[in-house]
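Q: Given only this backbone (210 positions), what sequence would you predict?
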């Protein structure tokens, strides 16, 4: 009888350790994701606040001292920034041909898109929704007609206004009824129907230097 009680106590202690360990891992994961997301947001802010200038060569002095390498968040060579004030979203985007221009790491500029400086062009950006760290478009469904979206590109802030919001079957293609106006389209998977995708169409209404 005494032996059974001891085994029961040992089991309870092990169970407590497992719960504590799982909680610690969960907290670390969320803190780490917050740190990475904030670092990437800071990159986008720096892109906006610092005008584009030509690169100049930098000569670095070499020393014999070897410092321990510290793992830092990955940096990206942004060509522009997407900002959506309605959902407090701000993130850089990459050149179409950049290897990191994919939804598993960033928001993705889709093939055949035209940058905002092309008159009458069509820029299409996709992103994940859901609950993971790369679900950058998780709140896209909150946008409504007349909400504004900003694109920062080559020292110009392009201001778009939402014209249409609809869902269509997710089959690898997007149907867009476009006229001659410069257009921005944002798209992501529907959170209520896994077979659908959200499509938000916006038109350019103004632009200004920043």
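A: Predicted residues:
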């Amino acid at each position: 009888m005494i032996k059974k009680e001891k085994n029961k106590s040992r089991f309870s202690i092990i169970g407590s350790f497992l719960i504590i360990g799982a909680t610690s891992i969960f907290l670390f994961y969320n803190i780490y994701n917050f740190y990475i997301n904030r670092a990437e947001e800071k990159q986008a802010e720096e892109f906006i606040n610092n005008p584009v200038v030509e690169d100049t060569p930098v000569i670095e002095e070499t020393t014999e001292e070897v410092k321990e390498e510290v793992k830092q968040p990955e940096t990206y060579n942004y060509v522009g920034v997407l900002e959506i004030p309605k959902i407090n979203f701000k993130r850089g985007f990459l050149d179409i041909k950049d290897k990191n221009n994919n939804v598993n790491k960033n928001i993705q500029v889709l093939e055949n898109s035209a940058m905002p400086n092309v008159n009458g062009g069509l820029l299409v950006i996709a992103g994940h929704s859901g609950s993971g760290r790369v679900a950058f478009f998780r709140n896209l469904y909150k946008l409504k007609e007349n909400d504004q979206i900003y694109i920062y590109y080559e020292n110009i802030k392009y201001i778009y206004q939402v014209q249409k919001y609809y869902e269509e079957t997710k089959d690898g293609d997007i149907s867009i009824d476009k006229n001659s106006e410069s257009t921005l389209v944002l798209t992501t998977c529907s959170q209520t129907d896994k077979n659908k995708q959200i499509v938000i169409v916006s038109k350019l209404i103004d632009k200004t230097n920043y």
